[in-house]
Design a protein that fits this description.
This is Inner membrane ABC transporter permease protein YejB. Keywords: Cell inner membrane, Cell membrane, Membrane, Transmembrane, Transmembrane helix, Transport. Belongs to the binding-protein-dependent transport system permease family. Pfam families: BPD_transp_1. It is a multi-pass membrane protein. The structure is a single chain. With about 350 residues, the chain is mainly α. The protein has two domains: about 30-110, no CATH class; about 120-355, MetI-like (MetI-like fold, Orthogonal Bundle), CATH 1.10.3720. The chain has 16 helices and no strands. The radius of gyration is 26 Å and the shape is globular.
Length: about 350
């Protein structure tokens, strides 16, 4: 198993490199880089540099325009050149990419273009919010879906199976962002009840609360975002559990166990459960990553949660390249590591699986 894990860890390097290369290349063709952002701010609001200086007092002199940037007419080309140098855009793209990846290998993610904080510190500050949202949503999905899936398998074809299938399919068909808005309207003071807070993860004065009050306040804030994130996960996981149990229930060893006089509960939980739950339990890391990646952005924006998804979105809008690639690197690395953990879960649940015999 050690050799397999080593191979998978080594494969992270080219995989992550490929992800970074593709996204770095795509960014080169996207209009409106950080220099354009500063130019637009200057042209729209006067001499507002947002803390970025070094152009000299003659930055607004009416000198021949630099045709590289739209809207740069009337700005001193030296000012534009200094902006490029400050953002590191004065070097060729290949050189910039090599410098960036070398820094990443040393865990140096640089500093945000528009915030006075390092990217690593910024990511570490936002990461707990996204992990909290993804972890709670995944746990709740498993706690509800596994018993429901087992029940549906045992009562296959009954009215209970029919109406629960209809309910989870309807829930699956509702987009997460639409359900989140519906929850806000109904329960966060939108039009009906003001039971839960509208935004944020904690209340003002959270630091001054007792431990019990902090727990209650945290759970009060996280309820609606977790429900909105989890709702679409029920369908896939419930039907996966049901189908897995149905496959095992119809096998010969179950018929033999029943013929020996074992009770249905003993057969179900003593024999079927371990085999049927292999794919469900082993899929926990993948399910977490799916929720972590797929729902964090929209839900964090709607509920004003200051997590990685919202950070990446704001960085993309502002063309804050260090933050964009820093969050992308973290997302990619976490996803690849979770893939390895998912394989280890298979072995943990069923030791008969041996990845050592695999060639790749």
């Amino acid at each position: 198993m050690g050799a397999y894990i080593l191979r998978r860890l080594l494969l992270i390097i080219p995989t992550l490199l490929g992800v970074m290369v593709i996204n770095f290349a795509l960014v080169q063709f996207v209009p409106g880089g950080p220099v354009e952002q500063i130019i637009a701010e200057i042209e729209g609001e006067g001499d507002v540099l947002g803390g970025i200086t070094g152009a000299g007092g003659d930055s607004g002199a009416s000198v021949e325009a630099d045709d590289t940037y739209q809207g740069a007419r009337g700005l001193d080309p030296k000012f534009i050149a200094e902006l490029e140098q400050q953002f590191g855009l004065d070097k060729p793209p290949v050189e910039r990419f090599m410098i960036m990846m070398w820094n990443y290998m040393r865990l140096d993610f640089g500093e945000s273009f528009f915030r006075s904080i390092g990217v690593f510190e910024l990511v570490m500050e936002k990461l707990p919010v996204s992990i909290t949202l993804g972890l709670w949503s995944t746990l709740i999905a498993y706690v509800v879906s596994i018993p429901l899936g087992i029940r549906k398998a045992v009562r296959d074809g009954t009215p209970f199976d029919t109406w629960t299938s209809g309910a989870i399919i309807v829930a699956y068909s509702i987009p997460g962002f639409l359900f989140a808005i519906l929850l806000l309207v109904l329960f966060a003071g939108g039009s009906y009840y003001r039971i839960f807070p509208l935004r944020g993860l904690t209340s003002e004065g959270f630091a001054d609360m007792t431990l019990l009050e902090q727990i209650k306040d945290y759970l009060w804030h996280i309820t609606l975002p977790v429900i909105a994130t989890t709702i679409a996960s029920f369908a896939t996981l419930t039907l996966l559990t049901k189908n897995s149990f149905m496959d095992e229930i119809n096998k010969q060893y179950v018929t033999t166990a029943k013929a020996k006089g074992l009770s249905e509960a003993r057969v179900l939980y003593g024999h079927v459960f371990r085999n049927a739950m292999l794919i469900v339990i082993a899929g926990f890391p993948a399910a977490f990553i799916s929720i972590f990646f797929g729902s964090s952005l929209i839900i964090e924006v709607i509920f004003s949660l200051d997590g990685l998804g919202r950070l990446g979105f704001e960085a993309a809008v502002a063309r804050d390249y260090p933050v964009i690639f820093g969050t992308l690197f973290v997302f990619g690395l976490v996803g690849l590591l979770m893939g390895i953990i998912s394989d280890l879960m298979y072995v943990l649940v069923d030791p008969r699986i041996d990845f050592e015999s695999r060639k790749t």
